[in-house]
Amino acid sequence: MAPIRVVVNGATGKMGVETVAAVCREDDLTLVGATCHTPRGSILPLTDGSSVPLSTNLEELLKETTPDVLVDFTNATASMEASLMAAGMSVNLVLGASGLTDDNFKQLDAVANDKNIGVIVAPNFALGAVVLKRLVEQAV
Q1: pTM for the full model?
Q2: Buried b (16+ CB within 10 A) or exposed e, 27-61
Q3: In the chain, what are the domains?
């Protein structure tokens, strides 16, 4: 089975950095891209010496990298915008933002059913490689 292709939205924030590290430790996950809020160059160096595209433009990054899963640890507003965009491209979602409303959950449920994708929402969870791996597996 091919590795699950992952993009991390908010990769330079505290949880984003941990998510990138967790994805990179797993043999069955492949980090294919990352986003950040403020420009920090066009590549994200990884601990193994490789790198992935780093962008402030999620839409372009999703088109270029064709991920299976978007992992998002931004805020509720940014997370919803990113989620609806990614879902429109049939990308599965793992969301760690807190502050999502009942209306947000209804939107996510509707788009998941419409696009036949998996959506996991787990705000404020402790992140480790095992937990992330399990969430991504459930989303795919």
Answers
A1: 0.87
A2: eebbbbbbbbeeeeeeebeeeeeeebbbbeebeeb
A3: 4-139 (3.40.50.720)
